[in-house]
Design a protein that fits this description.
By secondary structure, this protein is of the alpha+beta class. Helix content is 29%, strand content 23%. The chain starts with 6 loop residues before the first strand and ends in a 15-residue tail after the last strand. Bound molecules: ligand EPZ.
């Protein structure tokens, strides 16, 4: 898309002060929306952030035949799926679209979609999803290039499945397939991310029978159909991680309210090792930084409860400002550090070898300098905004639409904390002068 929703303009050098309420998690809301396809009664999801990917999933649900509307920040969904083909253009833009196939198979015996898109942080195959669904009775038909067609003429049945990798999406797909399948499913080697347990809580609230979600073995007794419910998705640990790293980068004191610190403990502990002060209480964490930052040596991402891969780029932005060497290896995705190019343009001393971003300190007395940057993906784009907060002078981060996928009101939130930041929705070159009408 030309301009892809414009740019974010940052004037660096301002510390952050204030409190931010952490919104509901994108990576919980999206699978929950897929789960709504299984519900025979209306669903209200509370306080859902107006994210681009949420709007995309609403389009998928409407394409399947459901009704969706916003009411005071809640999302109300009703109706049952009547169309098994998802809107291709929207589906091709998001990774989450793959999650809508299992419920359509369960309800209609068929699912057709464009192969899922999403941030280009790696190959992101869907073989684990498809292998598990095949064991539950789904068949993949020969579809055109870029298309996926699955059928389950005899319906889906329970199975014993072991995932060779604890894929978050594949775990969610197989729980969504099993919750209304005939018989019992045992899923071993499942992902343990909190969003999995949140999905199971939602489905159980609608009458499902899922045990062990959040552990590596999940047992599901199939139900004929699910009812509906009112549900508040869990808070966004990646959003909280991003704002915590913003406090480390810009300096100052930021309180993150409504997200238990245990959900993003690795990030908070690394920030403490870097010299930040972290105060934890109940569902809140307060991150402050007034002195210089230290490097932390080798850091590795991992599956939950390890350091979340999505938090790696924002953490890299903080490490960019440290006085010592660090490196981050992302063991989950092969191309996580598309933001390295932007870091270099800001004057950062980084290089990528394989899956590892190496970060060296700036020469004494030197700081990052504002520059024109391009967001490479969702989390990389957020990391460039964070790094620009510490850069002297003005930076422009283009393709800001990537950031809208996972952060609602990102510039407004940072401006509210004291950052000098604004959004330019249409690139200057494309802004058409409004000529006064003749009449
Ligand atoms: C989910 O993606 C999240 N997205 C990602 O967040 C997150 O980074 C990821 O989980 C890991 O935590 C949503 O929840 C919408 P995976 P997903 O399946 O499900 C390989 C963000 O920025 N794999 O756990 O795609 C895959 O290639 C996004 O919010 C297969 O090989 O992650 C990757 O290397 C980015 N075959 C690894 O597993 C498969 O069938 C982890 O992928 C599936 C995955």
């Amino acid at each position: 898309m030309a301009g892809y929703k414009g740019s974010i303009i940052v004037e660096g050098g301002r510390p952050l002060h204030g409190t931010v309420r952490v919104p509901a998690a994108k990576n919980s809301v999206l699978p929950l929306l897929a789960g709504v396809l299984l519900c025979g009664e209306p669903v209200r999801l509370r306080a859902v952030p107006r994210l681009a990917d949420v709007e995309g999933c609403i389009t998928l649900l409407q394409g399947a035949g459901l009704a969706a509307r916003w009411e005071n920040g809640d999302l109300l969904l009703s109706g049952s799926p009547v169309c098994s083909t998802l809107p291709g253009e929207t589906a091709a833009q998001m990774r989450a679209s793959i999650l809508f196939c299992a419920p359509l198979l369960a309800r209609l015996g068929r699912a057709e979609t464009a192969l899922p898109g999403g941030c280009r942080i790696g190959a992101r195959p869907i073989d684990l999803h498809l292998e598990g669904l095949a064991r539950m009775g789904a068949q993949e038909l020969d579809a055109g290039p870029g298309r996926l067609v699955l059928t389950a003429p005899a319906g889906l049945h329970g199975a014993e499945i072991t995932l060779r990798f604890p894929s978050v999406g594949a775990t969610e797909t197989l729980i969504l397939a099993a919750v209304c399948a005939k018989g019992r499913t045992v899923l071993r080697g499942a992902a343990r991310e909190p969003e999995i347990a949140d999905l199971a809580d939602f489905l159980n609230r609608c009458g499902g029978k899922i045990e062990g979600a959040g552990s590596s073995t999940v047992c599901i007794e199939g139900r004929r159909q699910l009812s509906g419910c009112v549900f508040s998705p869990l808070p966004d640990r990646i959003f909280a991680s991003t704002l915590a790293c913003a406090a480390a980068v810009a300096g100052g004191r930021v309180e993150l309210a409504g997200c238990p610190p245990r959900l993003y403990a690795p990030v908070l502990e690394i920030l403490e090792q870097m010299g930040c002060r972290v105060e934890r209480s109940g569902k809140n964490a307060c991150v402050s930084r007034y002195g210089s930052l230290k490097g932390v040596g080798r850091v590795f991402t991992g599956v939950y409860p390890g350091l979340a891969t999505d938090a790696a780029p924002p953490l890299a932005a903080a490490l960019l400002c440290a006085g010592g060497e660090s490196s981050i290896e992302d063991v989950i995705f092969e191309r996580r550090f598309g933001c390295a190019e932007g870091f270099l343009r800001l004057g950062g001393r980084v290089n990528v070898t394989g899956r590892t971003l190496h970060i060296r300190p700036l020469p004494p007395g030197q700081s990052l300098a504002g520059s024109r940057l391009v967001a490479p993906d969702l989390r990389g784009g957020a990391a460039l905004v964070l790094a620009a907060l510490a850069a002297e002078g003005k930076s422009e981060i283009r393709q800001a639409g990537y950031i809208d996928r996972g952060y609602a009101d990102f510039t407004k939130i940072l401006a509210g904390l004291g950052a000098q930041i604004r959004r330019e929705t249409a690139p200057r070159a494309e802004r058409v002068k409004k000529t006064p009408s003749k009449k």
